[in-house]
Amino acid sequence: MNNLFIEYRDPLFGIIVFFVLVFVIALFSYWWGRFKAKDDHKHLDRFLNQFKSPPSEMELKELISSSKISSKSWLLLADLYSQNGEYEKSIEIYYELLSHINEDVSKKDILFLLGKTYFKAGFLQRSQNVFLEILKANPRTPQALHYLLLIYEHLKDYKSALGVLEPLDELGEDVKSDKIYLEVILLLNDYTMDESEKTHKLLSLYKEHRRLTYLIFEYLFRKNPKLAWQNLDQSQCSRVSDLLWNLSQDKIDFDIISQNVYLRELFSAKGYVALEEKSSTFEFDLLINLKKSDYKGATLTFEYICKQCKQIYPFAFHRCPSCHAIDSVLSEPIISREYSEKNNSFQ
Question: Is 247 part of a structural domain of the chain?
Fold first, then answer.
């Protein structure tokens, strides 16, 4: 008995007991955490199982009015539907939430999300009405004004779009790019103006601001290639490489080409000239070498990247469809098989 008492008073014994207790508490905490996580997952699964198939309008009304799920959770679900392209369900949720407003989500926020979803779904008139409703109650809402500008632009109501820039400017928003862009678009869509006058006005805007290179030279190379070559900033050639690649041989200024390395490489790859034996651009270099071996079954196509959001598109754009940035397009060459219109087939 005395020996046991002595062992108990031994400091080493106390340390062992301490570590045993720490181990037991840690083990208990671990298994309790596992149990809680499993219980939380079950609760989440029960919630998600309700939406394996989209709920009907009546089911939505019942679920939202029951207040069993927070408004913020409904907003996350609506956003998920919107991201998956199920705009109708997303819109239904917003409408139901608007009729059951609570303190943690404001009517203005839900209206904004509703208008944004209508815009993404292509219901421009409905989207316009929603944003005008927001601005009626909250005139100092730049996000709503930005979307209203985009709506007017899509509706080709460029004068109304320009009108939106004034309140945005008063709110301290940077509208310089939008203003120049809309002025150029208005000019391009003015069919009463003489083509020569339009061309010179476009060049004047380009020289003044040095913006919208792709938009302006897309028009100039189509209407007046000679003037386009004379005024193209040659440091911007790579940005308009697809426009240059698709020019017919009679629209080429060979004197200008001979003075620019990038242009010599591009048109040597095209086969219009043989001024370069190689290129630092892989696609050009490959085509130059293929042409040396007399292979004519390859050409270039292009994809288009927004330098702001890095989204890639198979078509050129002047305002990014994703982030709405202006003059952010970059054309990237891609090697592809040559298509023969004569034989209606790929070579």
Answer: no
